Amino acid sequence: MGQRNYDTIIEIGDILVSGDVITEYFACDYARCKGCCCIIGDSGAPLAEDELQPLEDGYPAYSPLMSEEGKAAIARTGFFDIDRDGDLVTPCVEGSGACAYARIEKDGNCLCAIEMTHLSGGCRFRKPVSCSLYPIRVSELAPGRIALNLHRWAICRDAFEKGKKEGIRVYEFLREPLIRRFGEDFYSALSSAASRLLARS
Q1: Span 7-35, pLDDT tens digits
Q2: Domain span holding position 182
Q3: Distances (CA, A) of 11 to 4, 24, 73
């Protein structure tokens, strides 16, 4: 999946960005993976505290698109869960790694009930930003100071290959969610740093 760049760290304000967020290629290949990241894993998707209320507020709108197992998970756990590391995450269907908010179509494709509702104009909340930011994972280093690291998952191998084939870097593919989470100024600074880093490689 390409050479890993562990040595370069870009510091933008209180955010530290791993160099391989810039140097690695990535582009989701949904036709190959069918969204299986929504149903495979050890825990649900990471949640930010400011996402908890919108998640609850939008439930009446997006719950009709959820599976019965997903709705049962919400009834059992609530709109969020806490994983083994003490982090806020989306609940999972009991006995599986499937996110409670995932919808599995008859053709086997996995979709997000929340995002489907948002895109149709049914709710303002789109989906947890951690989902949109993948394969970037956000880690808190200290209060107000975070790190953005590239996560490598075997089920996304096709996405790394597609990104390389199409010449799309991780930070370019994730432009919209990066701006949504960290703002235009951050992305502009990241793009400038990327230009300098890539010019040296």
Answers
A1: 689 999 999 999 999 999 999 988 888 88
A2: 1-26+135-201
A3: 18, 18, 39
Dihedral through CA 183, CA 185, CA 191, CA 196, nearest 10? -150
What Cα–Cα distance (Å) separates residue 150 from each residue in 21, 81, 96, 114, 169?
6, 24, 25, 25, 12
Give this prediction's pTM: 0.86
Q: Is residue 34 part of a domain?
A: no
Examine the fold and report which residue of 105, 126, 147 is the final residue of a domain before the chain moves on: 126
| 63 & 96 share domain | yes
Angstrom distance (rounded) from CA 157 to CA 155: 6
CA–CA gap between residue 185 and residue 97 (Å, rounded)? 36
Residue type, 123: C
CA 101/CA 71 separation, integer angstroms: 8
Other Cβ atoms closer than 10 A to 133: 21
